[in-house]
Amino acid sequence: MKVIEIKVKTRKETGKKATKELRKSKYIPCVIYGGEKNEHFYAELSDFRALVYTPNSYIVNLDIEGTKKQAIMQDIQFHPVSDDILHIDFLEVNEENKITIGIPVKLEGFPVGVQSGGVLNLLKRRLKIKALMKNLPDILNIDVTELELGKSIKIAELDFENIDLLDPKDSVVCSVKLTRVAKGMEEAKEEGVVEGEEGETTKEGAEEAEKTGTDK
Hints:
The N and C termini lie far apart (75 Å). This protein has 216 residues and is α+β, with helices and mostly antiparallel strands. It has helices at 16-24, 49-52, 112-115, 180-198, 203-215; strands spanning 3-10, 27-33, 39-44, 59-64, 67-78, 85-92, 99-108, 119-122, 126-131, 140-143, 152-154, 164-165, 172-177. The strands form 3 sheets. It has a 6-stranded mixed barrel. A 4-stranded mixed sheet has the order 10-7-9-12, with no helix packed on it. A 3-stranded antiparallel sheet has the order 8-13-11, with no helix packed on it.
């Protein structure tokens, strides 16, 4: 998994007034938990941009004034109006224990359903997984080549080595929907088969009859 390093400073005061002053100075207050004790720290907004404003997931190497800790971003709070970052929670992680984290999904291949006029829809851009740090992938690749019109891929159909998928098994990850064009093609195809079986004039027969009549 991708790794990002961020240097931060220890927060000596953690009350509302101190937190307000930090934000006023364009700093982001943070906390890391999951270790022996919770630690409060802060850094400039620019230090967190690569971590927050990205579709990627990262292991974060925090340098808290010389103390090194590995973590993942567990939660982030935004201002309801301005959308500014208000606070970030980090969870300390290690090589021995499994980590629960969301990983981006990437669809690979050209679905047969799309070749028939359908539209590929990605419903879950990230999947919640649990795995050891050494087994965490950057991306979860899903092959959609054989996905047909009107079909979908659910969590229960996926399997990744050394990774536990935590989303509900009946959750749909992606699907190929019938467009109006594709639906019309399917209906026309079915009608042609039915008419042929009943001995009525098919599209080809009608064209031949019209041509014969014109020749006369």
